[in-house]
Amino acid sequence: MDFGCHDKGSGEVECYFEIHCDTGTTCAITIQMPNPHAVGCVEKFATFFSFLLVIITFPFSLFECFKVVQEFERAVIFRLGRLRKGGVRGPGLFFILPCVDTYRKVDLRTVSFDVPPQEVLTRDSVTVAVDAVVYYRIKEPLNAVIRVADYSASTRLLAATTLRNVLGMRDLAQLLSDREAISHMMQTNLDVATDPWGVEVERVEIKDVRLPVQLQRAMAAEAEADREARAKIIAAEGEIKASKALREASLVMIDNPTALQLRYLQSLNTISAEKNSTIIFPFPMDFLKTFLSGAGPSIPPSPLPI
Questions:
Q1: 240 burial class (0-12, 13-18, 19+ CB within 10 angstroms)?
Q2: Which of 3, 150, 167, 264 could form a Cys-Cys staple with 120, CB 3.0–4.6 A?
Q3: Three-class SS string for the chain?
Q4: Rounded Cα distance, 53 and 37, in Å
Q5: Are 103 and 132 in contact, with CB atoms under 8 Å apart?
Q6: Separation of alpha carbons 203 and 280, rounded Å
Q7: Cβ burial 145-170 (10 Å sphere, 16+ → b, else e)
Q8: Which pLDDT score, from 0 to 100, does residue 133 have?
């Protein structure tokens, strides 16, 4: 079986089917259909009239026929509602016919917009208000004009919906700690959804996460209790280390009694620096045994006022 189509040049398309049988016979079917891309008589007359108008009003018509688009812009031209061949125009100078040609400019620069704060219920049933910022650009001007009525408004609405859907699948702890992962997931979903429109989402950032006041107070109390618990643990660990150091110091002082006397004197020097009028300091009498050896039996140590 063979199938084919060809344009007859008169606004019609001829399609044919040929079926070859085993007996050697061939059956052919021919169907004539109107060509949807063919230009009708009215369109040809309107185009001719527009050319005639340009010639009559020359050179003033040049101001309406020649248009300029910037380096960051592209123009999509329609003639009597049909897209002109050649795709988009620009950058630079291009020609249009008055009365029959219309065009739309598309900006290729990156555009940013704020997603309004969205009231979102997280997976653990906590209500939060989240807003974001989205950066996008047009990569296919033709699709942005033909396939969507307003690519900017459509992208904004889709961004708000995507933000609610993505955050609804997360817990509050993940929402507060994994902002980068949430932004990347939202960018991927937006880019896939807007690709048929010729829009490329370059970046998505979560700006702010606003929690209820009661939840903020509860989280602050929890954080304060956690800090106090850690402070007590650190203080207890310090006491343990200090007791171990005192134990080692006592072992050194037992082996060398002179070190104990030096420690007494150092403590006395520290206390006297505070300008106290009376200091009760324990002073061992064994330190003066050389002076009191002839005065009788030794007296046990007792605190003396200094």
A1: exposed
A2: 167
A3: CEEEEEECCCCEEEEEEEEECCCCCEEEEEEEEECCCCCCHHHHHHHHHHHHHHHHCCCCCHHHHEEEECCCEEEEEEECCEECCCCCECCEEEECCCCCEEEEEEECCCEEEEEEEEEEECCCCCEEEEEEEEEEEECCHHHHHHCCCCHHHHHHHHHHHHHHHHHCCCCHHHHHHCHHHHHHHHHHHHHHHHHHHCEEEEEEEEEEEECCHHHHHHHHHHHHHHHHHHHHHHHHHHHHHHHHHHHHHHHHHHHCHHHHHHHHHHHHHHHHCCCCCCCEEEECHHHHHHHHCCCCCCCCCEEEEC
A4: 25
A5: no
A6: 74
A7: beebeebeebbbebbbebbeebbeeb
A8: 92
What is the Cα–Cα distance from 297 to 218, expressed in whole angstroms?
A: 71
The pLDDT score that the predictor gives to residue 66 is: 84
Give the tokens for residue 194.
């807007």
What is the model's pLDDT at position 212? 74
What angle do the packed helices 257-272 and 213-255 form, to 10 degrees? 130
C-alpha separations of 139 from 35, 150, 260 in Å: 31, 15, 84
Pick out the chain residues at pLDDT < 70.
1-40, 216, 274-306
Q: Report the pLDDT value the prediction gives residue 56, as an integer from 0 to 100.
A: 82
Contacting residues for 152 by C-beta, under 8 A, at least 6 apart: 111, 113
Contacts (Cβ under 8 Å, ≥6 apart) of 186: 132, 159, 162, 163, 166, 204
Indicate if the alpha-carbon torsion angle 252, 258, 261, 262 is positive or negative.
negative
At 38 the pLDDT is 52
Residue 213 has a pLDDT of 74
Of the candidates 134, 128, 207, 234, the one whose C-alpha atom is nearest the C-alpha of residue 171 is 128
